[in-house]
């Protein structure tokens, strides 16, 4: 059994976000910022994880609940040191404690494991990094021999200390018993009147405990998110990495800087994704699938060889092989398309199964319907599936041809092989095989005079 405990600090107000939503619940790649931290913590297989929350309490608990995660309330937030002090009683008294910040979500697991190994050996290990813009961050003060002496917060730093470009990432690990003795002794004698966890470093030095500043090479990994600008930066870092991983795995991503995966994506061979697409939830793309520019796909499965042309929106839908979707198509929840289906521009499909080779190429609506194989569904035709109170089903048999601008008032069945003439409004079942027309006959009034404008004055 691991002797590792993890504390995640997420009780701060996050004022700099200027938002009603607690900072750690803002979404990064479609998932709350702190959920990324919880995931990496769980990957270390610790025996316990405590998340310190405060601001926006109930919502934080609800959104972040996960197996084996204990919540500890810190209200009011009186600093990172106070937060750790509150968390420790919820964790085993022995072993090693790793402290993570709920607003530093991109730290990789191997960097954390390195810190834990140092702490297991008795040291206080702090993850640090050299950064281009250290402003606002705690600076790492080392002595002439390069040994870490203290961490000084920006607000309390001297002019010389502010010039230091090695910063505290906020991630540290220490033997739990020692950590407890340091956080018990913290004082709030600083400009913010908070209990700074970072003051524990100087205490460890005074106690003769080895302090190891483990410098991390990639400053993008240790980005902290305090405001929306930093959130946007972290999003781009994460998305670029996802795009690069996909490119390496053989998926064509037109522009890694214009790619957004907010869930999970599984791709076959030679999948192509053009610029500006947003993929959410669980997305599966078969071999040779092409997704045109600016499509949104959420919880979608697409079979091999299918093309989705630009500006299409697909949500909770499944699409077969060799289909052609879009441009400007909309597949809503419950759209299930068999192979070789064509859905053209401005066609909306909801809770509808379409058989092999069925086509709705222009300006149409299919809702709550069962559409057979090789059906041709004309431009401007709709299923009138809603009577103002209830939804009703439309069943269209195989090889049916529905002309343009038809209204199929559900519940309705159109028998296999039927042809429905353009402009028909149908409210009774259509028998198979024949031609059905439900439109007024044209009427011509031969001696009709077109009105003319009256002369003015
Ligand atoms: C903190 C560090 C700073 C480091 C930086 C890295 C301290 C005092 N400073 O500064 O050295 O360079 O992170 O990003 O530790 N929190 C609580 N309870 C509180 C206060 C904060 O749980 O009372 C949580 C916040 O929700 C946040 C995290 O701790 O997730 C860090 O707090 P924040 O106020 O953002 O600290 P920084 O100013 O970024
Ligand atoms: Ca922060």
Write up what this structure looks like.
The protein is an alpha/beta fold and 457 residues long. It folds into 2 domains: 4-222, Spore Coat Polysaccharide Biosynthesis Protein SpsA, Chain A, CATH 3.90.550.10; 239-436, 3 Solenoid (UDP N-Acetylglucosamine Acyltransferase, domain 1), CATH 2.160.10.10. It has 8 helices and 35 strands. The strands form 5 sheets. It has a 21-stranded parallel β-sheet that branches. A 7-stranded mixed β-sheet has the order 5-4-1-6-10-7-11, sandwiched between helices. The mean pLDDT is 97. Bound molecules: uridine-diphosphate-N-acetylglucosamine and calcium ion. Uridine-diphosphate-N-acetylglucosamine binds at residues 9-12, 52, 74, 77-80, 82-83, 101-104, 137-138, 151, 153, 167-170, 196-198, 224, 226.
CATH topology grouping of the largest domain: Spore Coat Polysaccharide Biosynthesis Protein SpsA, Chain A
The total of beta strands comes to 35
Major sheet size, sense and barrel closure: 21 strands, parallel
Global Rg: 31 Å
Class derived from helix and strand content: alpha/beta
Helix content: 10-25%
What ligand species are in this complex?
uridine-diphosphate-N-acetylglucosamine, calcium ion
CATH superfamily of the largest domain: Spore Coat Polysaccharide Biosynthesis Protein SpsA, Chain A
Shape: elongated
| DSSP strand content | 25-35%
Quaternary class: single chain
Report, as a whole number of angstroms, the end-to-end distance: 101 Å
What's the rounded overall pLDDT mean?
97
Descriptors for this entry?
457 residues; alpha/beta; Spore Coat Polysaccharide Biosynthesis Protein SpsA, Chain A; UDP N-Acetylglucosamine Acyltransferase, domain 1; 2 domains; 21-stranded parallel sheet; 7-stranded mixed sheet; 8 helices; binds uridine-diphosphate-N-acetylglucosamine; binds calcium ion
